[in-house]
Design a protein that fits this description.
Structural class: alpha/beta
Radius of gyration: 20 Å
CATH topology of the domain at 4-124 and 239-257: Peroxisomal Thiolase, Chain A, domain 1
CATH class of the domain at 4-124 and 239-257: Alpha Beta
Order of helices and strands: EEHEHEHEHHHHHEHEHEHHHEE
Strand content: 15-25%
Distance between the termini: 17 Å
Oligomer: single chain
Number of helices: 13
Shape: globular
Helix content: 25-40%
Length: about 375
């Protein structure tokens, strides 16, 4: 089977809600990383077979196939097609999977995959709430859904609470984890760990979310989001704005265009899980992708597990036995932010650059997704001698 290589990876800084990127049109933000990625790779846009972008809230400025609008806004030839995908929080990780699958099948040779979300402009759930307000119904209003899941509250906050209860994760454990996320992100930024992967935008050259001044006590003092619950804003991912993109190439494209492979996409997986608890998918997705890659948990050097909520990662750590020191070692969505459709590509961009910087051979990325799903990817470092 042909192999798929990552030959470029770039992202904007992650802007906080109402921050430096909040006034940038989503298509322009996506176009920014497309232009930067193609310039860094030194590839003519006409060589692209497709552009695939993830975006969750496809309404307003993020509607009407934002991938196509962004590709044209970036100056790519009109002959290059583009499509937008929605696998909820894993949308841009899925975009990379689709790109890799197209290349492995032999149908395409060079695909640009990424994601974008400007949550300051298009808030979480806008497609559903705007549609309901306009009298166009609700996503789970069908009779057959109600028959299967009657009277069930479906929300990520409830899912996080259910996980905390099932795994008996305390508020103190969540506070310790969230604090560590901020400390790791602050340290990584101070060490310049993100410099090579970030394309400054709108005058911003660093992630706005990490807080050096926060404390465990401050986190524990915040009120729970749900009455009687344990999850508060400090234990959840931040609302954010960002875009990220990766260039995925076949071996023949690497040779023909003189590209430098950064990593090979060794295995991909996607699974479904309980849509009510919703956020447990990364656990089975990890086992599934490891099996496909012929690896064990101990073989992996670096893990990126999206920090949708602190208990998601804590439950994953408990069930997989993965080393805490190897997991989200540069912080995660609790500190860096979670720009929904861009997060999968942001995580993979950071993972690829960290693997290159540290010489780590194998990396695994996984993330929970609305509706009870999860993607997982295993990357393998490509060295000069490969």
């Amino acid at each position: 089977m042909p192999e798929a290589f990552i030959v470029g990876a770039v992202r904007t800084p992650v802007g906080k809600r109402g921050g430096a990127l909040s006034q940038v049109h989503p298509a322009d933000l996506a176009a920014h990383v497309i232009r930067e990625l193609m310039a860094r790779a030194g590839v003519d846009g006409a060589e692209l077979d497709d552009v695939i972008f993830g975006c969750v809230s496809q309404v307003g400025a993020q509607s009407v196939n934002i991938a196509r609008i962004a590709a044209l806004s970036a100056g790519l030839p009109e002959s290059v097609p583009a499509t937008t995908v929605d696998r909820q929080c894993g949308s841009s990780q899925q975009a990379v999977h689709f790109a890799a699958q197209a290349i492995r099948s032999g149908d395409q040779d060079l695909v640009l995959a990424g994601g974008v979300e400007v949550m300051s402009l298009v808030p979480l759930g806008s497609a559903a709430t705007d549609g309901e307000t306009a009298g166009r119904g609700t996503p789970r209003g069908g009779a057959l859904w109600q028959q299967r899941y009657p009277d069930q509250e479906i929300s990520q906050f409830r899912g996080a609470e259910l996980i905390a209860s099932k795994w008996q994760i305390s508020r103190e454990e969540m506070a310790d984890y969230a604090l560590r996320s901020h400390q790791r992100a602050v340290d990584a930024n101070a060490a310049g760990a993100f410099a090579a992967e970030i394309a400054p935008c709108a005058g911003l050259d660093h992630d706005e979310g990490p807080r050096a001044s926060t404390s465990r006590e401050q986190m524990l003092s915040l009120k729970p989001v749900r009455s009687g619950g344990t999850i508060n804003a400090a234990f959840a991912s931040q609302i954010s704005d960002a875009a990220a993109a990766l260039l995925i190439a076949s071996e023949s494209a690497v040779r023909r265009l003189g590209l430098t492979p950064l990593a090979r996409i060794r295995a991909t997986a996607v699974v479904g899980s309980d849509p009510v608890m919703m956020l447990t998918g990364p656990i089975p997705a990890t086992w599934h992708v490891l099996k496909r890659a012929g690896l064990s948990i101990g073989d992996i050097d670096l893990f990126e597990v999206n920090e949708a909520f602190a208990p998601v990662v804590l439950a994953w750590l408990a069930d997989t036995g993965a080393a805490t020191a190897k997991t989200n070692s540069q912080g995660g969505a609790i500190s860096l932010g979670h720009p929904l459709g861009a997060t999968g590509a942001r995580l993979m961009t950071s993972l690829v650059h960290q693997m290159r910087r540290t010489g780590s051979r194998l990396g695994l990325q996984t993330m929970c997704e609305g509706g009870g799903m999860a993607n997982a990817t295993v990357l393998e470092l490509v060295s000069a001698g490969d």
